[in-house]
Task: inverse folding
């Protein structure tokens, strides 16, 4: 979340039905926040969860070991891999 010193320069405009607005106002009141604070906090938290879900990979310990073994002991390039790398001369094939 942005620090208190960060200037708020961006705006978002949303429309919602009255039932949703009342529910948001009620939830914000329980947390002693105004509607803007509540909506921003909840939206940023949800955004963080979605970003983490899509931008991170979690491996089991077995899968992590297979991955590390492949990094430490890469297989020899097969014919198709050599052909693919030969199309891109920037990456040397050993």
Result:
């Amino acid at each position: 979340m942005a620090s208190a010193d960060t200037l708020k320069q961006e705006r978002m405009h949303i429309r919602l039905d009255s039932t949703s607005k009342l529910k948001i106002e009620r939830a914000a009141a329980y947390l002693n926040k105004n509607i803007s604070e509540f909506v921003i906090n909840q939206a940023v938290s949800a955004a963080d969860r979605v970003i983490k879900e899509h931008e991170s990979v979690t491996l089991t310990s077995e899968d992590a070991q297979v991955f590390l073994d492949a990094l430490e002991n890469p297989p020899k390039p097969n014919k198709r891999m050599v052909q693919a790398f030969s199309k891109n001369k920037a990456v040397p094939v050993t």
About this structure: The chain has a mean pLDDT of 89. The CA atoms of residues 36 and 42 lie 10 Å apart. The chain is about 60% helix and 0% strand. The chain has two domains: 15-56, 58-94.
